[in-house]
Specification:
alpha/beta, three-stranded antiparallel sheet, Rossmann fold, Pantoate--beta-alanine Ligase, Chain: A,domain 2, 9 strands, single chain, binds pantoate
């Protein structure tokens, strides 16, 4: 597995490849969720490349950029074990050199849910993803369904900007007790870790009610709120039942809908979701 630290090095290596390339963009501190993206790319593509870059522009000044968990040596071991072909680990100066002034913004979709709580977040995500797509020129790029809004925003961006890449979403990977895997789970105290199971309980409830024939979106949202209220360590950020494509809140489920929530446990904010397809 080749490890490139500069865009120029990566490009020189990439120039030799004409077969299908799959990109797995990450911020490192890898877990099974990331590895499931790598495996999907290995299944679909001749070459699999990954990036490890904790992207400063998607963190607000109040967020956890400086403390975001990092373990490059372990990440490289994991990627090597999955037979990833090459990894790009750029510095922040390499991606955003002095005088950097260009950003990509998707309107509308980014105003809701995560975007309402984190107003500058998606501008940072779309900018870095667009840059990585330009640098790496993959035929396919893999994203986790856990960040469902990110997936929808990236799909919108590549569609609107005619980027010749297929965006592939992969299912959420969960711990045995149901907690969605996230690099941020490491921040949780044992008590918060236990309390955080309320997220997957909400998701399972939404799925069960939907399977039982409930189509009243307000009733499902209200029940998610009630379940979170019963957990003393949990502080709700948002609970949503929205159209899966537009992310507009709905009253009734008539088309694929995204049930999603963001909840704080102390200073750690976790998200989870499920798609309900009639
Ligand atoms: O999902 C992530 O880890 C990040 O948002 C991404 C897509 C790697 C962009 O920094």
């Amino acid at each position: 597995m080749l490890v490139h630290r500069t865009i120029a090095d990566f490009r020189a290596w990439r120039a030799a490849w004409s077969g299908s390339v799959g990109l797995v963009p990450t911020m490192g501190y890898l877990h099974e969720g990331h590895l499931s993206l790598v495996r999907a790319s290995k299944r679909d593509c001749a070459i699999t490349v990954a990036t490890i870059f904790v992207n400063p522009t998607q963190f607000a000044p109040t967020e956890d950029l400086s403390t975001y968990p990092r373990d490059e040596a372990r990440d490289l071991d994991l990627l090597k074990a999955e037979r990833v072909d090459a990894v790009l680990i750029p510095t922040a100066d390499e991606i955003y050199p002095d005088g950097y002034a260009t950003y990509v913004e998707v309107e509308g979709l980014t105003a809701r849910l995560e975007g309402a709580s984190r107003p500058t977040h998606f501008r940072g995500v779309t900018t870095v993803v667009m840059k990585l797509l330009q640098i790496m020129r993959p035929q396919r790029a893999y994203f986790g369904q856990k960040d469902a809004q990110q997936l929808a925003v990236v799909r919108r961006m590549v569609h609107d900007l005619n980027v010749p890449v297929e965006i592939i979403g992969q299912p959420i990977v969960r711990e045995p007790d149901g907690l969605a895997m996230s690099s941020r789970n490491v921040y949780l105290t044992p008590e918060q870790r236990q309390a955080a199971l309320v997220l997957s309980r909400c998701v399972r409830m939404a799925e069960q009610w939907f399977t039982d024939g409930v189509r009243d979106a307000t009733a499902i949202r209200d029940e998610m709120h009630a379940m979170i209220a019963e957990e003393p360590l949990a502080e709700v950020d948002y609970v949503s039942l929205a159209d899966a494509e537009t992310l507009q809140e709905i009253d009734h489920i008539e088309a694929p809908a995204l049930a999603s929530l963001a909840v704080r446990f102390g200073s750690t904010r976790l998200i989870d979701n499920t798609t309900l397809t009639p």
